[in-house]
Amino acid sequence: MAGRWWFVGSSMASVLWHPPKGMNLMAEIDLIHLVRAALVEGGIVLLPALLAGFGVALIVGLLQSATGIHEPLVGMVPRLAVMLTVLFLAGGWMVERFVDLFQSSLLMP
Question: Which of 8, 23, 57, 63 is most buried, taking the most CB atoms under 10 A from its CB?
Answer without folding.
Answer: 57
